[in-house]
Amino acid sequence: MVGREKIRSLLLSLLILGVFLAIWQIASMPSGGSQVVDDEYAKLVGAAAATGQKSAFPTPVEVGAKLVQQLAHPFYDRGANDKGIGIQLAWSVSRVALGFGLAALVAIPLGFVIGMSKLIFNALDPFIQILKPISPLAWMPLALFTLKDSNVSAIFVIFICSIWPMLINTAFGVAAVRKEWIDVSRTLEVKPLRKALLVILPAAAPTIMTGMRISIGIAWLVIVAAEMLVGGTGIGYFVWNEWNNLSISNILVAVFLIGVIGMLLDMCFARLQKAVTYRD
Amino acid sequence: MLPTSIPLAADPVRTPGFLKVQGLRQAFPAPDGKGELVVFDDVNFEIARGDFVCIIGHSGCGKTTILNVLAGLEQPTAGHAFIDGREISGPSLDRGVVFQSHALMPWMTVRGNIAFAVKSKWPFWSNAEVDAHVQQFIDMVHLQGSEDKKPSQLSGGMKQRVGIARAFSIQPKMLLLDEPFGALDALTRGNIQDELVTIVRQTQQTVFMITHDVDEAILLSDKIFLMSNGPRAVLAEIFENPLPRDRTRATMHHDSKFYECRNHLIDFLVHRSKTFASA
Fold this sequence. Notes:
The complex is a heterodimer. Chain A is mostly helical. Chain A is 78% helix and 0% strand. Chain A contains 12 helices and no strands. By secondary structure, chain B is an alpha/beta fold. Chains A and B meet through α9 and α10 of A and β6 and α2 of B.
């Protein structure tokens, strides 16, 4: 029965995709009329689009062809403004990995301390509450001014946006470790480091993992915007560059791939989360 | 049966005064801010080495607090507790605790849970030594075949067996059991009681146990501590079990003295525990 349910939902998904692509195809198909247009404009957007025979918006077939073309040569490098989409994605993923990794290195130990001590929790809470809702991009000018490097600034922005969910979830998970497990470790005279690693960490791991999953999602959202600002490399810059090129097909290819990578990142963390979750 | 390598107590002689409790009192600030709420007051008792003591009383008389003080998990408002001549100032590997909720780590296997305790006691043992030691105690509670299961895969009775094995595995001077069978069904409870009787008689372990079950207390204990009702509970009576030491669950109720004991304890719980303080 479960198998049939799966097949039916898959068929429905395919149907939805088909309808969506059909509407898109019809809406972006060339229309009949012809009109006289300015030569300069025609050169810029292409004769077909300028005369209205064809919408400037690409059809799904065109986008599909672009996607195949981009994926066929993902790592070519022909100068600053013409790099393969694989190179751009690799830049973005590595920035996210670095910023996120640094945030985890800070947030998890700090969250541990906050979760263990009511005093430190109460002392740091106002700062966290104020810093948390700040859009990470608001830090960008400050980062550029102080760090004086656009690449480092982008990583900093990822760091600052990833840190809060991990910090808060770690603190919450550590504070919520069941008293009976702590009591067991106390009666066994377990040394603090051993207790932290073998009791508190595994007990809080599912909550910490949830925080990491939220953080990686936010980091992937933010990197696109951050790279549009700092420029140079990355999938965000690619999107912006293709906008300046008026290559809607390339933008759509990038948008699609941003979604795919985001999904893969989330799936990785979902897998990790499942691995550390225990049944009581 | 116990594996032979678990050392049996060499000296079956009951050393008196092994555990001493003097003037124990627990009080909290009253909720209305005026005065204090005394849970229990002036509790004094001694337990000899090798004694099995059960403590019985209604909820709120502070049984668990007394056990937690003996475990070193709680500080009393006043009074002192000594074990083997040394004052109890905190938790220690001297005292093994079996928690009512079994308190197993759900992310560790049966073996892992017991090994965690064993490695805490003997941090410099090799893995082989730890494994061998753990296996003895798994065998002791008849959990062979479940070594690699997680607690979530075990029944309530099996979980509590792991809890008992974990407490015994560190070979403590004293065992503290906080109503260990409270959450189990009657049949499972009976089986584990039998196992506990066997293990305790062979190891001559000193045990302090909380229970609500009068029959359980008569079966297991040499002495039964009766607490009056809280607040301001006191240790009302220390009842010496007159039944022979080799009593079993199957035959105990045929002993002529059994119902005498049972009636005495139930009378206390139903009537005298209420009126004791005012009497």
